[in-house]
Amino acid sequence: MSEQVCDVPEKWAVLVGIEDYSHPEQPATTPRHDCLGNEIQYKPLSGCVNDVLAVEQYLVDTIKVNPKHIKKLLAPFPDRRYLSELLADSYHDPTYENIVNALQVVCETAKKGDFVYFHFSGHGASATTVFPELKGGTAFRQIQVCERKRQIY
User: Fold this and answer.
1) What angle do CA 71, 77, 78 make, to 5 degrees?
2) CA 127 to CA 125: how far, in whole Å?
3) Bridge partners of 144?
4) DSSP class of residue 84?
5) Of 38, 47, 1, 40, which is closest to residue 20 (Cα–Cα)?
6) How far apart are the C-alpha atoms of 76 and 82, rounded to whole Å?
7) Total Cβ atoms within 10 A of residue 134
8) Do residues 13 and 116 touch, judged by C-beta distance below 8 A?
9) pTM of the model
10) Can you list the positions of beta strands (E) in the chain?
């Protein structure tokens, strides 16, 4: 009788935490306004990087995700203390290009049946959708905001 070999699903994660929304090197964009006409401003946050670090620790310690299968994209403040030391080579900036690249790498590497987890901790908003027919009568969708070099919408 031949033995069947079962592939154990692998686990992957892309973790994004954005606290510092300042980007002095980026030219100003067209101001955005909410439904009341107020200008939308993405002010600095706290706790987002620690969210990612806590989720990472849980994934590694409890769920047993291989640390090499976790992509971190962070915008921390240099003068803040976090749950663990942030080494410069342990994460990337959460730019549009870097987030898309991290997701592409996971999508190209993961196999059918693998577990893939995406975590975003940062500003979010509602915006009109370009696909209202898919939204079942509502024209709004939830978005995550990444204002470092390019926005995610």
Assistant:
1) 100
2) 7
3) 124
4) S
5) 47
6) 9
7) 8
8) yes
9) 0.77
10) 11-18, 70-75, 115-121, 124-128, 140-144
Contacts of 11 (CB under 8 A, 6+ apart): 59, 63, 64, 65, 66, 69, 114, 115, 116, 117
* Length, in residues, of the chain: 153
Residue that is written with structure tokens 């992957």 in the block: 12
CB 60 within 8 A of CB 70: yes
User: Residue for token digits 């070099």?
Assistant: 149
- Tens-of-pLDDT digits for all 153 residues of the chain? 555 556 889 999 999 999 998 766 666 666 777 778 888 777 889 999 999 999 999 999 999 999 999 999 999 998 899 999 998 899 999 988 999 999 999 999 999 999 999 999 998 766 666 666 766 655 555 555 554 444 343
Task: Say which residue the tokens 């979010």 belong to.
Answer: 124
